[in-house]
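pasting LacI family DNA-binding transcriptional regulator for the record, 366 residues
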Amino acid sequence: MPKKVKKRLSQKRIAVDLGVSQTLVSMVLNGRTEGIAKDSYDRIWSYALENGYSPRGMKLEAGMPGGMAMGMETVGYILRAPLRLANKSNFFSHVHQGLHDYLTENWAKTVFLGSEDLIQPKDLEQFRRVRKSMHGLVIMGEMDSKLVEKLADIFPKVVYLSASLPGVCHSVSGNDVEAAEQLVEHLVDYGHEHFAWLGGSPGTKRNLNRLNAVKSALAKRGLSLPDERQVITNSDGADWREGHGCAEKILALKTGPRPTAWICLNALMARGAINALLRNGLQVAKDVSVAAIDCTRVRESEWPTLTASAAQPEEMGRLAAKLILDDAESSYFQDIVVPATFFKGESTGPVSSVDGNSSQPLERVS
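structre below
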């Protein structure tokens, strides 16, 4: 006989079992405490959790003892626009994994609270009502500073991930300066002197910071990045399509030393650039070396593996969770910078002795 599936405990059932109104149960389970007796509040939550009730946005582990369930914390997270759960981005998927792992190890769970561009004033009011049942909030990606300030005023602890707003909340970011240094040093050691930058998400601090980091690393070695090589797309994305479009623009250049080393904003853009090179009959690593500021699975997902450097996003997620669950009281905010990890892939190689300083366009293989 198949095992009978236990039906989800409803708020109506809780109200009937406890002999209270469904309105009261609804208010309590949605985080309201004002005007509600503490005994009633605790009694409703205790009964709900001990009998397997799953609050909106939370999934309690099956078979977890009542004491464990009662002690379970929830941590919310919000994605920058235009990301959604279905396309939270390669990078933030890794971040969320690290966040989830650390919270699970400490009997806590994540709650998705929405995307930046979909949050309305009514949502902020709802956040105020449930904040006492949540331990904190992780903001994933650069957002409008006014929204970040509002969120920091609502939640007990807020961690801004891959961005920062000094004096407002904690932050965890990667060391992009170190990543750029490692990539430029690697490519210069291979003999490259002419570089190109393939960027995306123009106007964001992330794009600007990484571009400036690459410029600084080149300047230390007496090299520069001519303005015409700073190929920044006009779209709001930084993925495969933008990388492909940037590559096509570089390949269409007719004057000046041709760039033999391309550094990309992230691995998805690098994959798009590599596809453009292959479509034009060029050899990756021999004709053009491609590297990325990235440390996600995309660097090893297909041939050729990518030469890349960046902070490990899973570690960033774990550190964000640790900051939120830390019960130590402090009057200051922490800004954590995670070191970069270098990965040598198949996408980079020595500059061609014949083509290194040519001013002619790259020759397509027929």
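The first strand starts at residue 73 and ends at 79.
The radius of gyration is 25 Å.
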